Amino acid sequence: MNDAESAESAESAESAESAIKLLLAEDQGMMRGALALLLGLEDDFEIVAQLGNGDEIVPRALETRPDVALLDIELPGRSGLDAAAALREALPECQVLILTTFGRPGYLRRAMEAGAAGFLVKDGPVEELAVAIRRVLAGERVIDPGLAAAALSAGPNPLTQRERDVLAAAVDGATVADIAAKVHLSPATVRNYLSSAIGKTQTRNRMEAVRAARQNGWL
Questions:
Q1: Taken in order 89, 90, 93, 94, is the CA torsion positive or negative?
Q2: Host H or E run for residue 200
Q3: What is the pLDDT of residues 106-164, one digit of tens each?
Q4: DSSP bridge partners of 71
Q5: 169, 219 in Cβ contact below 8 A?
Q6: Spatial separation of the C-alpha atoms in residues 59 and 188, rounded to whole Å
Q7: Minimal CA–CA distance to 120: which of 129, 112, 131, 109?
């Protein structure tokens, strides 16, 4: 190997070591592939993991040690929000950036509570995403400005954790007995939580309460 080749090899190795390692979790294969391809064109990015299931996020992150994890919210298995909280505990040096189609104020609040460093909707240009990745890695917090304003005007999530659990179990039209079995509560207690959630969401029944909670990002 001549001097020029040695220098080029050393430069390449140094570049690989300094690259920003990214984990990408997105359940739609085409979207995941497109994002990986576009972000891979950036000289300082390296895609170390591409996942379609939320249950895989923490194990693969511990294996690949990404600098930034880009997580969708709606994932099979563990949601991106739940995975964000688990990832921040398991690998605190990894910054989490939530990417979602659903710009719901409640989702933003939950993402921040889970320790996410950023929250962006997917309709922005990839150049904007690349800048956001570098910013969160530098210790900044990056939030879609329109969504931040909406979250401030919407106020906090009015539902308790138990009310959210009961509504989540009611998503598929489950009976009170089914819900009680899922959340390990008595039917009477489930009815009380459902009644409370219906009142807080200002709806008429449990299915309307579920819809309202999901639209606001409270579930």
A1: negative
A2: helix 187-201
A3: 778 788 888 999 988 887 788 889 999 999 999 999 988 767 656 655 567 788 889 98
A4: 25, 98
A5: no
A6: 39
A7: 129
